[in-house]
Amino acid sequence: PFKEAHIDHIQPVALFGSDRMSNLRTLCIRCHALRRDSTHDRLRRKCFEKGIIPKNFHDLLWDD
Known about the structure:
- By secondary structure, the chain is an alpha+beta fold.
- It is 22% helix and 12% strand.
- It has two helices and two strands, in the order ββαα.
- The longest helix is centred in the C-terminal third of the chain and has 9 residues, at 41-49.
């Protein structure tokens, strides 16, 4: 559902990305957690604990 969509920074703020619309996109929680980005480690852990992503999620990680 849209109310559960996540806003993702294409270029992470930690790596000098901005909050401009051109650097933002919406993702479902599963896709957001599986994005290959070290800043998503905590989100991945929460999603794993809640059963949103499987135990073997490493094969599902994706890059831009």
